[in-house]
Amino acid sequence: MLYSLVIYFSPLKDLKPRHDLGASLHAFFYNLLRSGDGQYATELHNKDVFKPFTVSPVEMMKRDYISGPGLTGMPAAFPRGSLCRIRFTLLQARPYFHLAQYFLNHGRPFSGPHLNGIPLEILEVRVVQTPEEPGAGYTEYRHLWEQAAAARRITMEFSSPTTFRQGDVNLPLPVPRLIFSSLAAKWRYFAPDYPLHPGLDEYVEKYVALAEFNIKSALLDYGRNRKYVGFKGRCSFIVSGGDEHQELAKQVNMLADYAFYAGVGQKTTMGMGQARRLKCTGGD
């Protein structure tokens, strides 16, 4: 199973981080998970392989969020009592069950969790996608596998800085090979029952091209000399090839859908690489 949880909260004191909150968001997730199952949280933290979760940056919302999302942007500080939003995606069922148990054991609202040393009041947790909260949702790997179509145009939005490790440097550009190989690596790890075509990487290299883009660069400073430049914005890709490539085209489309949960590129457990496919009229 795949899950996307959106958590609404308010800081009980002014949250004024000196750096981007990547490490604090990472710790925030583990602390919530540890409250549900401490042993599993420790096991997961110690693994060197892919982590089965992503974390979004914190966003500050308008107070009338129940009737609509109304983002006000990403301020450098989050005042006491402000309405904030964070999104966790889970690539396996097990962490979801532990987080669900934790939230079910508390009423709403409730306080206790901390972010960057500041206590928070949890107001609401959403897992069902609605027009008011498109960031929530859940699905199955099987569903993504079976419902994939061989669309020839894919449009994606990258809502947090995205970059890729290439040797000793980072490449903050929407290169199709890097985007889809990042997604394919996670799919192969977490969904081995639905094997990708062995020629998928070669197909992407030859037949998937960047058609248009509207992106900008963004810097994340995690402190301790950890700075990352990434790209944000929208990109469209053309998926070409003949009838003999139909199955490969479907798998590229499936991976684009998977990005909503898996994230793309580096540091997806620290707020980077948040991505989703857009259903564009006349495009897909």
TrEMBL record:
Keyword field contains Hydrolase: yes
Alphabetical keyword list: Antiviral defense, Endonuclease, Hydrolase, Nuclease
Span of domain CRISPR-associated protein Cas6-like N-terminal: 1-146
One GO MF term: endonuclease activity
Residue ranges of every copy of the CRISPR-associated protein Cas6 C-terminal domain listed in the record: 156-274
Domain of life (superkingdom): Bacteria
Protein name: Uncharacterized protein
Lineage: Bacteria, Bacillati, Bacillota, Clostridia, Neomoorellales
